[in-house]
Amino acid sequence: MPDEPRDALEPKSATPAHGLARRVQRSDVWRSMFRHPQLDTPRGRALQSFSNFFLHLYPVKIPARVLRLRYSFRLGFIAVVLFGILTITGVYLMFVYTPSPASAYGDMQHLRTSVGFGQLIRNVHRWSAHLMVLVVALHMVRVFYAGAYKKPREFNWVIGVTLLLITLAFSFTGYLLPWDQLSYWAVTVGTNLVHYVPVLGGTLQDLLIGGDQIGSNTLLRFYALHVAVLPVLILTFLAVHIWRVRKDGFAVERPTKGTFEEEATARPLPNAPAELYGNRTRLLGVVDRESVTAEERPVHDTVFTWPHLLARHLVVTLGVSALVLALGVAFAAPLRELANPNVTPEPSKAPWYFAGLQELLSHFDPLVAGILVPGGAVAALIVLPYIDRRLATEARNRKVAVLVFSGVLTVVVVLTVLGTFFRGPGWRFEWPWDHLYLEL
Amino acid sequence: MNTSRRQLLLDGWKMLGALLVGAGGYTAYEALRPVASTSEGARLDLGDEAFFEEGTATYVPEGRLYVVNAKGDRFALSQKCPHLGCRVPFCDSSGRFECPCHGSIFDLAGEYIAGPSPRGMDRYRVSVRRKRLFADTSSVISGPDRGARKYLEDPTGPSCVGED
Asked: Which string of DSSP letters, residue by residue, matches A171-216?
């Protein structure tokens, strides 16, 4: 059936529950919890989506194209799954961890030697964190190449950039917590970068580390940031991010059109010709533009979110969990010697996502490499959707944007690979097959 | 007075809100700013001045500093690299300070030789009293700028890091 909408495959009538299930579902207790029928019909599924708190994140129906793996590679969802895994494993770690230089390192050893599955939990937390940085970055790259940051989704792109920065802040603050040589010196290098911010640098650095060098103050505030401040921030931005995906519409639904906000919210002129308002009927003075425009761009091939999308999400969740569990079983998170302010290890490398920055720092002035270049890159990402305003999303129609972005991306990848795999003591060039100084 | 009561109240709420944000910001600053060091006296006794012979670098762990004697002048050099804060070890074979993080190199007196550091090594004021050497660790003096070559000498041997 070539052009038949997939709705046609949905069951037309429900098979009623029977036996015990029927009695439970009809009980007052059950009905007090679930206010919708459990009917396996289009109407039943729509009602379930509407009246369920957790499902209200999703539209009731989605364009069938969204189901295709190549539509998004599920990267945004994978990032959310990783964040969930990080939250769960993070809570486990909080039960055994004290954020003080006297006990932090010992707690890490205690975790490894005396807590059942303790090392595994820490490994999973570590690898999930690395993967999350990678996946969030890939998600951004994917959205760029799809041109999905264009009107009306400009602001959601900005929120996405913020989420990437929060993810990096999570990784950086978490990096210090084991209080070993690796974390101590990577964070020393990282926080000293702040010193090069013009005018306010010294004050900012003092506020960040709470002293003239990394110490108990630093550990305590990084911990507070890691387990309280950043989680609240990321959940807030994530909620808005996901909400806006729905409000701004899927990329497939609105390939070229802009918003109708001005039309939808402007007061109608008396006796204005109907064309001025796109021939749409306006309700009251102010109407949500979604309700105005939704009707005029029907997507024929739609499917119910439940079960079609949710089942795929469940598979992805299980797959990601299996992957990080396998990584956690196979590879142990590193734990070097106790942090020692008097011995700088060789080489002192930042975590891989900052290795490109460190590589840049070895060639240029810290103000340029540590502040202007990364600051400029973030600023460029934020203003990108407001500069690249043409609505075309195909690569051949936006050659400049694609070329510039691909060029910068290549430089970032080259610097990161160089810094991560090709640098040894004293930041000398070293072939990775001669000696690999990889710190994760 | 042309301000209506309505306008006054509207502005009043905004001001109260701004005040609250300001108070919150200041509280955060107070909670995060470094507390003044409580360690005993800023004057650190480094020991008998005759101990620090010419051409040597001695590490003083209590002060996280090196006492060096370059061409007869003594300096108390902070171990913290002016570049990005790594501890700069003294390389015995080359007779220079060589940072393992990003390869900055300084001569015995902490003058800049090579690498990404923006200046020479930071130092503390030293003084002699009754034949004993003291360092004033209460304030850091920024190192000499990159051009300083007063104490530069050829390396005494192979480098510990950097190009060899």
From this structure: HHHHHHTT-BHHHHHHHHHHHHHHTTSTTTHHHHHHHHHSSSSSSH
How far is it, in rounded angstroms, from Cα B162 to Cα B100? 8
A185 and B61 within 8 Å at the Cβ level: the answer is no
Q: Indicate yes or no: CB of B103 within 8 angstroms of CB of A428.
A: yes
If asked whether residues A170 and A289 sit together in one domain, one would say: no
pTM of the model: 0.83
B47 and B128 belong to one structural domain = yes
Same domain, A90 and A42: no
Q: How confident is the model at residue A134 (pLDDT cuts 50, 70, 90)?
A: very high
- Is B126 part of a structural domain of the chain? yes
Interchain CB distance below 8 Å, A207 and B29: yes
What confidence score (pLDDT) does residue A289 get?
47
Query: What ipTM was predicted for this assembly?
Result: 0.77
> CB-based contacts of A124: which residues, under 8 Å, 6+ apart?
A85, A89, A324, A325, A327, A328
> Is A73 inside any structural domain?
yes
**CA nearest A361 in B: which residue?**
B116
In a domain, A436, yes or no: no
Give the domain extent around A230.
69-254+303-427
B63 touches chain A (CB under 8 A): no
Query: What is the C-alpha to C-alpha distance for residues A161 and A144, in angstroms, rounded to an integer?
Result: 12
Whether B154 is covered by a domain: the verdict is: no
Q: Average pLDDT for residues A204-225, to the nearest whole number?
A: 90
Each residue's pLDDT tens digit, B104-139: 899 999 999 988 888 999 999 898 888 889 988 887
Contacts of A207 in chain B (CB under 8 A): 29, 32-33
Q: Which residues of B touch A188 (CB under 8 A)?
A: 84-86
Residue A292: band (very low, low, confident or very high) from pLDDT cuts 50, 70, 90: very low
User: Does residue B150 belong to any structural domain of this protein?
Assistant: no
Instruction: Give domain status of residue B128, yes or no.
Output: yes
**pLDDT (tens digit per residue) in B38-93:** 444 578 888 888 888 888 888 988 888 999 998 888 899 999 888 888 889 898 88
CB nearest to A344's CB, from B35, B61, B100 = B100
Q: Which of A200, A207, A223 to mutate to test the interface with B (most CBs of B within 10 A)?
A: A207
Give the closest-approach CA distance of A426 to chain B in angstroms: 4
Q: In chain A, which residues touch B (CB < 8 A)?
A: 185, 188-189, 191-193, 195, 206-207, 210-213, 217, 221, 341-348, 358, 361-366, 425-428
Q: Confirm if A335 and A181 have CB atoms less than 8 A apart.
A: no
Rg (CA), chain A: 26
B101 interface with A at CB cutoff 8 Å: yes
- CA A187 – CA A172 distance, rounded (Å): 7
What pLDDT is stored for residue A96 in this prediction?
Answer: 95
- Do A214 and A341 share a domain, yes or no? yes
Residue contact A341–B64, C-beta within 8 A: yes
Peptide bond into A63 cis (omega under 30): no
Cβ atoms of B43 and B134 within 8 Å: the answer is yes
Instruction: Give a yes or no: residue A63 inside a domain.
Output: no
B57 and B12 belong to one structural domain: no
Domain count, chain B: 2
For residues A308 and A287, state if they share a domain: no
Quick one: A320 and A181 in the same domain? yes
- Residues A173 and A287 occupy one common structural domain: no
